[in-house]
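Sample log: Fe2+ transport protein.
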Amino acid sequence: MRKYFFRTLQRNKKDPKQGYNWGLDLQAPHLYTIIFPFFYKESVKMNSFKKVFTAGLAAAALLAGGMTASAGFQEYPIGDEQEDTVNHFKVALVYFQPVQMEPEGSMLAADKADIHMETDIHATEGNECGFGIGEWIPYLTVHYKLTKVQTGESIEGVFMPMSADDGPHYGANLKLLGAGTYECEFSIDSPARQNYSLHVDKETGVTGHFWEEPVVMKWTFDYVPRNW
């Protein structure tokens, strides 16, 4: 292709009537060898751009639709995540709208509750009781006490172990005492309270031990009633 191109240029340059005419001979068959690949390449680029642009619009539409569909659900974190550096686990506390549970009647019905509160309790680095980093710790007894600062009234109980689409946790549907500031106190007993045992022999045992006294953690949050 390069050879034919330069031949055309040289022929035009030697023509005394045209002088230095850099135009190409449109009748020359070899010219299409030059022009066609160029326009074909540009056409492919344009088609690719259209495909990418169309795909981008579709993705944006899906994202917008997903955001609209999920706008009705929102978690409200309660304070910061806390970590027990002695027993090597971390605890996060959140609440959102009351949820339906199975089996029915296992806790307060969603239509009678104000919120669903849950706590995520996972092992951290250094846990030697057989739980990997980030793994949910089962068989805990999680006792809660929520005290409304303005009145001194309290509600209390025990969170149940349960599973949602984001994994296992402890939680409950709760009926609060109206709007206000609440002090949350959680008392967490180790799995040993529910007779969860650890291997301690040399061949198969773990080197860690469960805590013997409840671990107490506290948070404070402001509750504003919502129409879920």
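Observation: The two ends are 71 Å apart (CA to CA).
Observation: The chain has two helices and nine strands.
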